[in-house]
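Table 4 source record.
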Amino acid sequence: MFRRLVVLVSMVILISSCSQHNDQTGEVLYRYTGDFISLVDQRQEPVNKEYGITFTLTMDQFHPSDPVFKKANTTYPDDHEGFRHVDFTERTKVYIQKGNTKTQVPPTELFNYTKPFGPPRSDISYQKLEVWITPYKKNDWFIEAVEVVILQDS
């Protein structure tokens, strides 16, 4: 009887301590979509290494409007083409979604969807992306992509 009680109490303590170490608790992610324009590898840039930024994703038809992005929107307005960007960090996950199936892929998979750079052209079909973003904790004028989904037809 005593052993069972000790095992039960130990399990409760273990479960309780595991749940307290979840640093993602309470984080709000914002969902947006946009058209993929480019991905830039930032892993060798000293300032980006300091901030933990690994890639920069540029999109068209992407306009984060929630109030939490006011500082980022003010600091980095649309560029001359009307594009906006988000930053990848070590925690960014990239997926391909076909129908109901979602498969994780490396961020470099996005290079396979690159189109000619320049103003959006009506004769080119740009890849639609879904991004789940949040202001970056290390610098709230950056927008961190926590999840990026390459949306494909079924």
